[in-house]
Amino acid sequence: MSKKACIVAVAALLGATPIAFAAQPANHHAAGQSQGTIQPDQMRASKMIGSRVYDLQNRNIGRVRDLIVDRDGMIDFIIVDVGTFLGMGGKTVPVKLSDFKTDNNRLTLDVTKEQLQKMADYWIRDRNTGSGSSTSPIHGGKIGSGR
């Protein structure tokens, strides 16, 4: 192949490269990462907070107020606001994540509103730090110890 033919071939290849890349679907993920799809039995945490909670009879029994996450990033409890009307009269109760059923961004519990209202109230001592009713590590407790 002559020198001129090689130059023409390389120029043609370089000129076609952007078109070839443009024809491929964009992949904004780094190498080794996979693109995920939320399954019907999954829910994003950002969508969970504020979501309504229903019982098995399709009645609204509360709303997700917060998520309590352990030091490994796993959800320990979902805090459900039960019976609050215009910011008054209700209570917040901790419910284990495993007690919830999710289906297409809908949270369901196999309990009634009355059963939730009988549960122990969960309170946050200092809303600015996010600490619960356990002692802060700054004041002698250890993360995850509950003391």
Descriptors:
single chain, disordered C terminus, 6 strands, six-stranded mixed β-sheet, SH3 type barrels, 147 residues
Entry summary:
The protein has 147 residues and is an alpha+beta fold. Helix content is 20%, strand content 22%.
The helix count comes to: 3
For the record, the CATH class of the domain at 45-123 is Mainly Beta
Q: How much is the radius of gyration in Å?
A: 26 Å
Structural category is alpha+beta
Walk me through this protein's architecture.
The protein has 147 residues and is α+β, with helices and mostly antiparallel strands. It has a domain at 45-123: PRC-barrel domain (SH3 type barrels). 20% of the residues lie in helices and 22% in strands. It has a six-stranded mixed β-sheet with strand order 4-3-2-1-6-5. The longest helix is centred in the N-terminal third of the chain and has 21 residues, at 3-23. It is globular, with a radius of gyration of 26 Å. Residues 16-24 and 140-147 have low confidence and may be disordered.
Q: Which helices and strands occur, and which strands form pairs?
A:
Elements lengths: L2 H21 L21 H4 L3 E3 L5 E10 L5 E8 L8 E6 L3 E3 L4 E3 L3 H5 L30
